């Protein structure tokens, strides 16, 4: 007995810190519970029976379980079925083999697919300690502070796991003191990477907040030019942290300049009316409202101001503004800006009537042609100057709002001093002219897998899915039911009666369904020619820009979810990157695709380790740094 206790004490020194749960990892040999005395002449099955009974009795004390009658087999507080020698023998054989082959895993969170796939490979689960489960639930947002995606479902499916004969629970108890060689958790802080031994595998990298938070991605993509010749403005909408004073000033300047270009576009589109259904609809809507607004607008002055601002912007790009000294007056004074913006709101937002604008179409169009050559986002900007305001580290669309007046945006942000202090608010240009499906907005959830940061190694999943809004697309309202496609928001809303019947009630399409839609419009080839290559490039560039900030650890991988919108030309625009993307089978689409991506992740990170030619499913290696 003393020898057993001594050995157990030695093993307990090897510890892996699992958040607040304090799980221990010991050496590879099976170790009995410290209070399980062993009889020298007892058989293996008798020893195992005694061990399980002792462990059950020890764990059940806090639950005040009654002592079973003499001759009955002791059961644990989780109501194990009666233990029989054959079951014990089977469990012991599986456990011995798993321990010998270093196949002990631990999963935290609703991942039944991962559990099943690992068990099919001969792995045995060491279940994480459950009494503090509810504590973790209540702190889930804090634990995922570095992630944009906490998942669309809070259901912990491990509670619904099918284990009718209690074999999995029994094996878990038999490996309760063994070293865990594979961790899969939905919380980055569940594992302390500094306590891991090098052979232990985990599914989270440290410091991923450099690109999986909205503020982190916003800041670090600006450094892309140091790693690649690509321009982030070609795939990532302009973004600013409003808590940083220099970025706040840059945003105000951007908003004002965008108001100028939007007004020029408004003049051109109003007169010609040939820029597509979206624009025509907006112009018709504003004409219907125009009679409500009668305040006179100095059209000539507005256009001259807009042209001056745009010309100054072009000169700054050509570095022709370096000869200007500090005493050179600004293009527009603060008073002039206030007058211009108020007039812009009246005309574009309010539909105030203007006359003789056809005289200015030529000069407005000429300036726009010059701007489109240097402004990759001019086509997606629209005419309403809408921006989307996001709390920097919240997930599932929480706290996100759209606004189109500068004073509204600044007032919205200034109203929360906590977020200002922590530099959490970001404001990003909204894509006003997205590709629509049957008049409805959607975004694309695309998975990718990083298996190493040094060298950077990226796998791209060939399958993805679309998430639709429940309401038809319109710029007459900025309600989240129209403009936010997060399933965690839309699943609580009833689809509009005006929405096209071609959009499913569960608000989701697979990529195959979308390609069928494109084919019906003669654009099927664009998926492989434009959409997929654009998404791949955006993912790679985002990772390149943050690579130096990551802590690279071997035997670590991470599955991410990227959210994209498509422009009307099908070019993809990266919206955000998410750690711990939801794997909830919320619809028939996600039930199939989320299962597949989890199984294929294990093919890459486990099967391919043993066999470089192993099948990797729908994962494709798209980048390995040389």
TrEMBL record:
Annotated region (Disordered) at: 1-45, 131-165
- Gene Ontology molecular function, alphabetical: ATP binding; protein-glycine ligase activity, initiating
Catalytic reactions on record: L-glutamyl-[protein] + glycine + ATP = glycyl-L-glutamyl-[protein] + ADP + phosphate + H(+)
GO CC terms of this entry = axoneme; microtubule cytoskeleton
Which portions of this protein are annotated as coiled-coil regions? Answer: none
A GO biological-process term: cilium movement
The record's annotation in SUPFAM superfamilies points to: Glutathione synthetase ATP-binding domain-like
PROSITE patterns hit by this protein: TTL
**What InterPro entries does the database record attribute to this sequence?**
TTL/TTLL_fam (IPR004344), TTLL_monoglycylase (IPR051437)
Q: Which UniProt keywords apply?
A: ATP-binding, Cell projection, Cilium, Cytoplasm, Cytoskeleton, Flagellum, Ligase, Nucleotide-binding
What subcellular locations does the record give? Answer: Cytoplasm, Cytoskeleton, Flagellum axoneme
Name the PANTHER family for this protein.
TUBULIN MONOGLYCYLASE TTLL3 (PTHR45870)
Name assigned to this protein: Tubulin monoglycylase TTLL3-like isoform X3
The organism named in the record is: Cottoperca gobio
């Amino acid at each position: 007995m003393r020898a057993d206790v001594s050995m157990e004490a030695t093993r307990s020194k090897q510890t892996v810190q699992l958040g607040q749960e304090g799980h221990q990892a010991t050496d590879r040999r099976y170790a009995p519970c410290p209070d399980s005395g062993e009889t020298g002449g007892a058989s293996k099955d008798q020893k195992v029976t005694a061990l399980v009974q002792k462990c059950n009795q020890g764990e059940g004390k806090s639950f005040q379980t009654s002592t079973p009658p003499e001759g009955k087999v002791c059961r644990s507080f989780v109501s194990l079925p009666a233990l029989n020698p054959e079951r014990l023998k089977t469990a012991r054989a599986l456990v011995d083999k798993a321990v010998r082959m270093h196949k002990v895993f631990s999963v935290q969170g609703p991942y039944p697919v991962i559990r099943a796939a690992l068990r099919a490979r001969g792995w045995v689960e060491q279940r994480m300690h459950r009494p503090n489960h509810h504590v973790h639930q209540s702190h889930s947002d804090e634990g995922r502070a570095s992630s944009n995606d906490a998942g669309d479902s809070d259901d912990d499916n491990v509670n619904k796991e099918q284990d009718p004969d209690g074999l999995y629970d029994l094996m878990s108890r038999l490996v309760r003191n063994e070293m865990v060689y594979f961790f899969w958790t939905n919380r980055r802080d569940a594992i302390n990477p500094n306590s891991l031994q090098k052979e232990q595998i985990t599914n989270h990298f440290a410091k991923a907040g450099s690109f999986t938070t909205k503020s982190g991605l916003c800041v670090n993509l600006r450094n892309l030019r140091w790693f690649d010749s690509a321009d982030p403005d070609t795939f990532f909408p302009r973004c600013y942290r409003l808590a940083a004073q220099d970025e706040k000033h840059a945003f105000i300047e951007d908003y004002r300049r965008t108001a100028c270009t939007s007004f020029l576009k408004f003049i051109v589109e109003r007169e010609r009316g040939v820029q597509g259904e979206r624009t025509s609809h907006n112009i018709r809507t504003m004409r219907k409202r125009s009679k409500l607004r009668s305040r006179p607008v100095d059209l000539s002055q507005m256009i001259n101001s807009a042209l001056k601002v745009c010309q100054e912007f072009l000169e700054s790009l050509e570095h022709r503004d370096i000869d200007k000294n500090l005493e050179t007056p600004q293009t527009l004074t603060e008073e002039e800006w206030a007058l211009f913006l108020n007039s812009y709101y009246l005309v574009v937002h309010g539909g105030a009537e203007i006359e003789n604008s056809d005289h200015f179409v030529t000069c407005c169009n000429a300036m726009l042609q010059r701007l489109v050559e240097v402004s990759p986002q001019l086509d997606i900007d629209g005419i309403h100057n809408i921006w989307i305001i996001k709390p920097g580290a919240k997930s599932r669309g929480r706290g996100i709002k759209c606004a189109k007046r500068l004073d509204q945006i600044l007032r919205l942000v200034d109203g929360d001093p906590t977020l200002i202090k922590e530099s959490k608010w970001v404001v990003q240009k909204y894509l006003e002219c997205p590709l629509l499906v049957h008049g409805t907005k959607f975004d694309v959830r695309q998975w990718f897998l990083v298996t190493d940061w040094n060298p950077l190694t990226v796998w791209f999943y060939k399958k993805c899915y679309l998430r639709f809004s429940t309401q038809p697309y319109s710029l007459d309202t900025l309600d989240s039911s129209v403009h936010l496609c997060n399933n965690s928001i839309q699943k609580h809303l009833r689809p509009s009666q005006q929405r096209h019947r071609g959009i499913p009630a569960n608000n989701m399409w697979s990529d195959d369904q979308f390609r069928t839609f494109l084919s019906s419009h003669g654009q099927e080839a664009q998926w492989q020619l434009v959409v997929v290559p654009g998404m791949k490039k955006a993912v790679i560039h985002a990772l390149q820009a943050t690579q130096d900030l990551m802590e690279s650890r071997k035997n670590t991988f991470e599955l991410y979810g990227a959210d994209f919108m498509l422009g009307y030309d099908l070019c993809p625009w990266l919206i955000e990157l998410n750690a711990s993307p939801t794997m909830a089978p919320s619809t028939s689409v996600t039930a199939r695709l989320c299962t597949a991506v989890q199984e294929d992740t294990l093919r890459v990170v486990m099967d391919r380790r043993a066999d470089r030619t192993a099948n990797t499913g729908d994962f494709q290696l798209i980048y390995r740094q040389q």
